[in-house]
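Protocol step 4 of 5: obtain the predicted structure for the target chain.
Materials: sequence only (see below). No template structures provided, no constraints applied. The aim of this step is simply to have a reference model before the mutagenesis design in step 5. Sequence pasted as it appears in the construct record:
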Amino acid sequence: MELFATETGRNRFHGEVAKLEKELQLLREQFKRKSDDFNATLEDLANDHRVSEDGRVEALQELESRKFEISDLRVQLISHYRRFCAKAS
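Step 4 output (structure tokens):
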């Protein structure tokens, strides 16, 4: 009878081990999926940040270009105005 009880206990123990191994495998798979999702999201975020930063730099360059263009046009306008005033006098 004792052998039967020991064998039953061992079978119960092996069953519990198998159940825990299955749970562990499911948790590993879940962790891997979540980790993969996190890494994909992080990569998308980094790419979006690069695109955004490139756009910001491009906008600043365009702004500086427009400032120089406005400055040049202002100088030309003043020059033409002075010539016009000189001819009118």
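Step 4 remarks: The chain has one helix and no strands. The first helix runs from residue 2 to 88.
Proceed to step 5.
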